[in-house]
Write a structure and sequence with these properties.
8 strands, 6 helices, eight-stranded mixed sheet, alpha+beta
Length: 234
């Protein structure tokens, strides 16, 4: 029986590795990312492992194979033949502090990055800003890439939110699975583009807090539910 369980666990892990690669490639295909500077991860708690699977550093997504994806424990110990993304620290800390996060997408999406280079978040200029879970989308203060300082800033900016910008850097989106994390990243980039275009005319008006609260309430029960991520086993 234990052998059969190990076989199923190995198959499930390989499938998750393949989905991480597919999501990384979809970032580029969707236009929210170029080249290989971003990263993607998925939480994994199975077969005695507690941590996440993440894209490696410095490898073109089109060249990735399942064995190239790096397992990182919740203590920050990498397991794999390649080094993990240099941003593994904020992935680790987001998973540690957010039980709702099962996948993370980090990109240098052009319009999000443009706003981030101006130290601007995205205010409630459009009701769809609530898709990220709050009244606005914050911009975390600048910290050097790959550092604990950046991880701390990202966790703070994501408090009560599912997405944030990183000053002079890019953006992060989290989700209950890879599909939802990527979908949110695309939506936030679309909002960033619309906000940037509005700024070319002037500073857009923003919706009041009580209206954004109403929108958040309506979003809570809006649309068709997606399948829930599989239950993890210790």
């Amino acid at each position: 029986v234990s052998g059969a369980i190990r076989v199923r666990a190995a198959a499930a892990e390989r499938e998750l590795r393949e989905r991480v690669i597919a999501t990384a490639r979809a970032m580029n295909a969707s236009g929210i990312h170029r080249a290989k500077a971003g990263n993607v991860s998925a939480r994994r708690r199975e077969d005695g492992f507690d941590g996440f699977l993440i894209t490696p550093t410095g490898v073109d997504y089109e060249r990735l194979a399942p064995d190239d994806i790096v397992a990182v424990t919740c203590e920050g110990e990498p397991r794999g033949r390649l080094a993990p993304s240099s941003e593994w620290r904020f992935h680790r800390d987001i998973y540690a502090t957010r039980s709702d996060a099962h996948a993370i997408v980090h990109t240098h999406a052009p319009f999000c990055t443009t706003l981030a280079c101006l130290d601007r978040g995205i205010p409630a200029f459009h009701y769809m800003v609530a898709v990220a879970g709050g009244r606005d989308i914050r911009c975390a203060p600048y910290a050097t890439f790959g550092t604990q300082a950046l991880a701390d800033a990202a966790v703070d900016a994501l408090a009560g939110r599912r997405a944030c910008l990183l000053a002079h850097h890019g953006m992060i989106a989290i989700g209950a699975d890879l599909e939802r994390a990527l979908r949110l990243a695309v939506e936030v980039e679309s909002l960033a583009e619309t906000y940037w275009r509005a700024l070319q005319v002037g500073e857009p008006a923003t919706l009041p807090d009580d209206e954004m609260d109403r929108v958040l309430g309506r979003f809570a029960g809006y649309g068709q539910p997606l399948p829930q991520p599989p239950q993890e086993t210790a």
